[in-house]
Design brief:
The complex is a heterodimer of chains A (435) and B (233). Chain A is mainly α. Chain A is 65% helix and 6% strand. By secondary structure, chain B is an alpha/beta fold. Helices cover 36% and strands 26% of the residues of chain B. Classes of the chains: A mainly alpha (435), B alpha/beta (233). At the A-B interface, helix 1, helix 4 and helix 5 of A face strand 6 and helix 2 of B.
């Protein structure tokens, strides 16, 4: 196994595609970082004069996420080619057929190849770590749990893209053929995201399959165990399919039967995944959670809540309501049932002609309350009233103070990403391709 | 004894192998001979379990070896491949020696016997045709399976190199391995092989030692493989 990993790593390091990926990722991340850095500095200037404005300046959202957006692009558009190459090159050169005849187990070979791809993922992530280093050295604030959450999301995204790419390479005859389904999965996610943001079509119904949806909660500082479980199941399934399809000697019949078994097993497990409801809020300002006193009080509501919302998903009030109440309620009381009849209706009929539009109905057992407000200040007292509970004692968690930062020059970042990184990539490429 | 029974393979309407049955005695060198398109490579791939067959079985020492476990008894090196092209020949040979648990001294001996020493630092993609062929033979010799199958092992070798490789293959065979070689040059086959398997249009045209084939083809003793080939194939 160790020698197989060495072989795969040496092959990867000697390949041009890895260093082209590195060469492109560095400046791409650098550009995003420098832009975000500059905009954050501009936004910070008024906050230095008026401290109340500082609360809106979160470096995680303002600098780190935009910079990591470029890594997401590299993982979506470039990384699959490197991952596909790990199998396709061996297929084309006859090396894979030789490897299948060695005492190495097929699963060990796949593990070695996946390890090599993981190394490529690490190389893509390095500019991100450089972003964090430069930001920190510039005096910027980093909240470690939130940042680690983002890195976990990037890792899971990298793992699922790897699994898709390896399976595509195993099943396709050539690298170019494998690139088509792999990119269809990664780029198809953008179509699903677009669909989920708008109309209620069949595309919107399957938008949970979007790969970008995997990354989104982690970019918001939230570890959602359902997503982690879903990725683990999908990855295991794709690796099992790769093992089924990559051996050229296996007849089509057993391949298809095995595929059906894997797909059905994974589908059954994925159906169970939504029942895993836990999540961890790792944001510094705990933006996805109610205050501890409100949480404790909500948990005392004896019967499950049923909330019927008559607001279109694209309505700003619905977005606000979802962010400030519904998402937090789902985390605190997973049994809460939320129904939105407006989400089922085509947009052209949501013109406000429905007399119910804007209403939110709360039910708990036989009790019922109604409101048109989406503000926590009005909704929470309504819930206490509905449950017959006294309002919780006021707790005042320390307010998020924000971290404004004005840095006059981004010269260090420009030097690092536009000069040093490409130079280092070229040197490494020459070094590893030289015997 | 390596025994293949009724091996068949169709590619759509093309019948690439038609119920091929053959026997290769243990510790011999057998040559699969036939014109281009006769099905030599398909037969070797099918025997190695690297291409699904429509029907057929393979036995080694009277034990049925299913397709998925063929690699336990067979190692097949294809023709004209450049495995791990970006890596040095030395690294690749060391890797295969390591996974097969071969001692370093054996690997060094094979490298010297095949005159690969001067090319060890070159990338596999940079090797000339003849050197690449010797590199592939070295890869095969590092494997430990009792049966070694080489596709066109002399293609690209000059006469001197071939005359050095043939004794090495004979040594390997007498040391306990059964060799199956696919060869299209009859003179090369006659030099290297003790047993011959003649293929024509995916069908078995004859098998046995040269004298057995001469008798079967109605040739005079000592008339040679070329005469046998012309009559049978």
């Amino acid at each position: 196994m160790r020698s197989a990993i060495q072989l795969e790593l040496r092959s990867l390091l000697a390949s041009r595609s890895l260093w082209i990926l590195s060469l492109l990722t560095g400046p791409l991340v650098g550009f995003s970082f420098i832009q975000a850095f500059s905009l954050y500095g501009e936004a910070s200037k008024p906050a230095l004069v008026t401290p109340q404005l500082a609360a809106g300046l979160d470096p995680f959202d303002g600098v780190i996420i935009p910079a990591y957006g470029a890594i997401y692009l590299a993982l979506t558009l470039l990384f699959p080619f490197v991952a596909i190459r790990v199998i396709s090159t061996d297929k084309d050169s006859g090396a894979l057929r030789l490897l299948f005849q060695t005492p190495l187990r097929s699963s060990a070979l796949l593990a070695a190849k996946a390890t090599a791809v993981l190394f490529a993922w690490l190389l893509v992530e390095l500019p991100g770590l450089l972003v964090l280093l430069i930001w920190r050295l510039s005096g910027g604030h980093i909240f470690a749990p939130e940042t680690l959450c983002l890195l976990l999301g990037q890792f899971l995204y990298g793992v699922i893209v790897t699994a898709i790419s390896l399976f595509a390479a195993a099943a396709a005859e050539s690298a170019s053929t494998a690139a088509l389904p792999a990119l269809a999965c990664t780029l198809g996610s953008w179509v699903l995201d677009f669909a989920s943001a708008g109309e209620s079509s069949w595309l919107a119904k399957i938008s949970w399959l979007s790969l970008t949806a995997v990354l989104r909660p982690f970019e918001q500082g939230l570890v959602v165990w359902r997503v982690v479980g879903g990725i683990a199941i999908a990855t295991a399934g794709l690796f099992a399919l790769t093992l089924l399809w990559w051996h050229p000697g296996r007849p089509l019949g057993p391949k298809l039967r095995g595929t059906a078994t894997v797909v059905v097993s994974c589908a059954a497990l994925l159906v169970l995944a939504p029942h895993v409801t836990g999540s961890v809020d790792l944001t510094e300002d705990q933006r996805h959670s109610f205050s501890p006193a409100v949480r404790t009080e909500l948990q005392q509501i004896p019967e499950p809540l049923r909330i019927t919302v008559y607001l279109a998903p694209e309505d700003p009030r619905m977005m606000d309501f979802n962010r400030s109440i519904l998402a937090k309620l789902r985390r605190t009381l997973p049994r809460t049932q939320i129904i939105n009849p407006e989400a089922e209706r085509p947009a052209m009929f949501k013109t406000g002609q429905d007399p119910n539009y804007g209403r939110v109905i709360y039910e708990s057992g036989p009790r019922r309350a109604e409101s048109t407000s989406t503000s926590p200040e009005e909704v929470l007292p309504l819930l206490w009233n509905l449950a017959g509970l006294p309002p919780p004692a006021a707790d005042d968690p320390a307010a998020y103070r924000g971290y404004p930062l004005v840095v006059n020059s981004s010269r260090a970042a420009e030097l690092a990403f536009y000069a040093l990184w490409p130079a280092l990539s070229l040197v490494c490429w020459l070094l590893f391709s030289w015997r | 004894m390596l025994s293949v029974q009724t091996l068949s393979k169709n590619f759509g309407t093309l019948r690439a192998l038609d119920r091929i049955s053959l026997d290769v005695p243990r510790n011999t060198i057998a040559g699969i001979i036939g014109p281009n398109g006769a099905g030599k490579t398909t037969l070797l791939l099918g025997m190695a379990g690297l291409l699904p067959m429509d029907s057929g079985r393979l036995y080694w020492e009277d034990h049925l070896i299913p397709g998925r476990t063929r690699s336990q008894v067979l190692f097949y090196v294809e023709d004209a491949i450049r495995p791990h092209a970006q890596l040095s020949a030395e690294f690749v040979l060391r890797f295969y020696a390591s996974v097969f648990g071969r001692e370093r001294t054996l690997a060094e001996t094979i490298i010297d016997r095949l005159q690969l020493r001067d090319f060890m630092r070159a990338r596999v993609s940079e090797l000339s045709k003849g050197t690449a062929k010797r590199f592939l033979i070295a890869l095969g010799l590092l494997s430990t399976q009792p049966i070694l199958m080489l596709d066109e092992p002399f293609d690209g070798l000059d006469l001197k190199q071939m005359l050095e490789v043939v004794p090495l293959l004979r040594e390997i065979s007498s040391a306990g391995r059964t060799l199956v070689l696919s060869i299209h040059q009859l003179r090369d086959a006659e030099r290297a092989c003790e047993q011959f398997i003649l293929l024509r249009d995916g069908k078995l045209a004859g098998q046995g030692t040269l004298s057995e084939l001469e008798t079967r083809a109605g040739c005079e003793p000592g008339s040679g493989l070329e005469e046998v080939f012309l009559r049978l194939v």
